[in-house]
Design goal:
GO molecular function: D-xylulokinase activity
Structural class: alpha/beta
InterPro entries: ATPase_NBD, FGGY_C_2, FGGY_N
Family: Belongs to the FGGY kinase family.
Protein name: Carbohydrate kinase
Pfam family, one: FGGY_C_2
Number of strands: 22
Shape: globular
CATH class of the largest domain: Alpha Beta
Number of helices: 17
């Protein structure tokens, strides 16, 4: 008798830095993991960009490796990756250009003309829920290509966002997913729930694949294979899925990392000009419903400022990260310093030499960051009564940060949420019904309650 093979789902989680492949069993435990990093290459202007060919080969190498493992039976495959990145394919499904970096500088003139033709930057940004972010608005990348390289543009058969390109490599099918269109692309008209009219006016709509919901799957192109292939998801939207499936009372998720993103799936009121100016936008869930989100570059700011403190006091940054909440010190600090400024760079303007100790300096830094975070999160609160706030990612392990969030959101239950690989699990859960006969486990997310 042959060995019983374990049913698994394979998830490719493609970040800017790390490219990972996970195999999850039916209880969503990681049973295999592979990680790769590639050297960036450059585009025709000499700007750094993802090495698309390395990524393509890595997908096939990784799959060949796991298919050779006789202890696993792969039932389904799905993909999640960063957004704001298009792959332009010719009629044979081959990429025509490098995978341009979303940080590439954007020509002012093209942007200005587009906004002028559609009611000005404010109106356009409100309709598309896309703050003017240049190349980070991936729709504008297509407009630039069409304007500057019309011959090349005419050869494009289909433009796919990166997660859908990865899916196409395995399924041979081309689709557009709502989570990718919905993330500050400047393509989607939120009030009309369709592509914005500039997309058809510019003749761009014809290069988009049909839109399907993110929980759909398609058979693989490989002869004799029985596994299903998901269409891929934008990573920020994928990380929200475990929470949407586990909690039905209104909540906000503060997903913390380099960016701290407050996501409210229960607030779809129209964006205001003020919200837009404070980096608030909409994402779309895998089923196409809007999620109001505000972004704060707080993780990056934390890294920069703890280096300043550590250098001044000649200690390691680890010593600062491991400090516990000292309420007596916090009370003294509140009496001594002003915390009315909600700007993210407040601490950078403080004199590190003015603090009595590194502990005091670090408590002030976290207080400054939390004050900025409160302002950011309040932008997405809305009218619906939120009963819980979940904080996941780096800051969820910071007891000073968590205690202060709980203190200031007194009327809402605050939890530090931990979950290994939430983004990858989201991409697995969204296609759960297609591969997993078991019910979704209730203990996927570990919660730690913080009392105000």
């Amino acid at each position: 008798m042959g060995k019983v093979r374990k049913n698994v789902v394979a998830i490719f989680d493609v970040g800017k830095t790390n490219k990972k492949l996970f195999l999850f069993d039916e209880n969503y435990h990681i049973v295999f993991e592979r990680s790769a990093r590639f050297l960036e290459t450059v585009d025709e202007d000499g700007d750094p960009c993802e090495n698309l060919e390395s990524l393509r080969l890595s997908v096939f190498d990784s799959l060949h490796e796991v298919f050779r493992k006789d202890e696993f039976e792969i039932k389904a495959i799905n993909f999640t990756s960063y957004g704001a990145s298009f792959v332009y394919l010719d009629e044979h499904g081959r990429p025509l250009t490098p995978l341009y970096n979303y940080l590439k500088t954007y020509p002012e003139e093209i942007q200005r003309e587009l906004y002028a033709a559609y009611g000005g930057v404010d109106q356009f940004s409100l309709e598309t829920a896309s703050p003017a972010l240049g190349s980070l608005n991936s729709g504008l990348q297509i407009l630039k290509l069409k304007t500057e390289k019309p011959d090349l543009f005419s050869k494009i058969k289909t433009a796919l966002h990166l997660p859908q390109y990865l899916s196409f490599l395995v399924s041979g099918k081309m689709y557009t997913d709502k989570t990718s269109i919905g993330c500050h692309t400047a393509l989607w008209d939120y009030p009309k729930n369709n592509y914005h009219r500039w997309v058809s006016d510019a003749g761009i709509e014809k290069i988009f694949a049909p839109i399907v919901n993110g929980d759909e799957v398609f058979p693989s192109t490989h002869p004799g294979s029985t596994y299903e292939v998901g269409i891929g998801l934008h990573d920020s939207s994928s990380a929200l899925i475990p929470y949407l499936l586990n909690f039905h009372e209104p909540f906000i998720l503060i997903s913390t990392g380099t960016w701290c993103i407050s996501l409210n799936p229960f607030n779809n009121t129209a964006l205001t000009k003020d919200q837009l100016e404070h980096d608030t936008l909409f994402y779309l869930t895998y089923s196409g419903t809007p999620v109001k989100a505000s972004r704060l570059f707080a993780g990056q700011e934390h890294e920069t400022q703890i280096k300043r403190i550590a250098e001044h006091y000649d200690i390691s940054t680890a010593k600062l990260r491991n400090l516990s909440m000292n309420w007596d010190l916090m009370d003294a600090i509140k009496a001594k310093f002003n915390f009315e400024n909600t700007a993210l760079d407040t601490f950078s303007k403080r004199d590190v030499a003015a603090f009595a100790s590194f502990e005091e300096a670090y408590h002030v830094l976290i207080m400054d960051l939390v004050v900025a975070q409160l302002a950011s999160t309040k932008l997405v609160l809305g009218e619906t009564k939120i009963t819980r706030i979940f904080v996941d990612g780096g800051f969820s392990k910071n007891t000073i940060y968590m205690n202060l969030i709980a203190y200031y959101f007194k009327d809402i239950e605050v939890f530090a949420a931990s979950m290994a690989q939430a983004t990858a699990i989201g991409a697995a859960l969204v296609i759960h019904q297609h591969w997993n006969p078991k019910p979704i486990p209730h203990d996927l997310i570990e919660l730690k309650y913080y009392r105000a």
